[in-house]
Amino acid sequence: MDSTLTTIPVITLDGPAASGKGTIAERVGSALGFHYLDSGALYRIATLAALDAGVALDDEAALAELCRGLSPVFAEGRILVAGEDVTERIRSEEVSRATSRVAALPAVRRALFELQRRAARTPGLVADGRDMGTVVFPEARLKVFMTASARVRAERRFKQLAARGVAADLDELTRDLEERDRRDRERATAPLRPADDAHVLDTSEMNVEEVVKKVLDWWSDASKLS
């Protein structure tokens, strides 16, 4: 672990799929002037690359090798891989369903670990994912674990898809999220769980502004102690 990173302020937002981590992390990062790491996007990029290359999603060695060759570029809200804008493609339901399978593989997680660590740079970083506070940034000054019921998360995803003109079945989305939660919790490497020192925040009855304010209040408290 690079001890120099202990001097860089890091906030981690972990939680299950569709818990709103990305939206909150971006808002918090913007409010503080910090960089933002969407770690889930890295796993989605790897999954999309595997699907495009025809790599089997259970071929751990081939997937890890593919990950080591990735050089994604995040700029102005877009994501480029080998010059191609994949911002929309990595959010497809096909990629979403397959990503938790790819992310469960230890060799894949090891291959992407250093890429994520390098995202921490001054003036600070807000990182969202599944294991940001437990594995990637255990020294983070503030760790938050966001959650909500599967049904509430499915309803949020349903609305997002509808806004993009994509038809979806709410019950199917709920079942899919419950299955992804199970895989994330039960995987052998970096299972989904709150860090021991994380603030657990159930957002089922909260709006975005309320969640952002809560995280910023916790950050203010944490900063006074550092």
From TrEMBL:
Superkingdom in the source lineage: Bacteria
GO molecular function terms noted in the UniProt entry: ATP binding; CMP kinase activity; dCMP kinase activity
CDD domains noted in UniProt: CMPK
Reaction(s) this enzyme catalyzes, per UniProt: dCMP + ATP = dCDP + ADP; CMP + ATP = CDP + ADP
Annotated Pfam families: Cytidylate_kin
Cited NCBIfam families: cmk (TIGR00017)
Gene Ontology biological-process annotations: nucleobase-containing small molecule interconversion; pyrimidine nucleotide metabolic process
Region (Disordered): 179-200
Protein name: Cytidylate kinase
Organism encoding this protein: Sutterella megalosphaeroides
EC numbers on record: 2.7.4.25
SUPFAM superfamilies per record: P-loop containing nucleoside triphosphate hydrolases
GO CC term, one of those recorded: cytosol
Compartment(s) of residence: Cytoplasm
Domain Cytidylate kinase: 11-217
Binding residues annotated for ATP, in chain numbering: 15-23
Family per similarity comment: Belongs to the cytidylate kinase family. Type 1 subfamily.
Keyword terms: ATP-binding, Cytoplasm, Kinase, Nucleotide-binding, Transferase
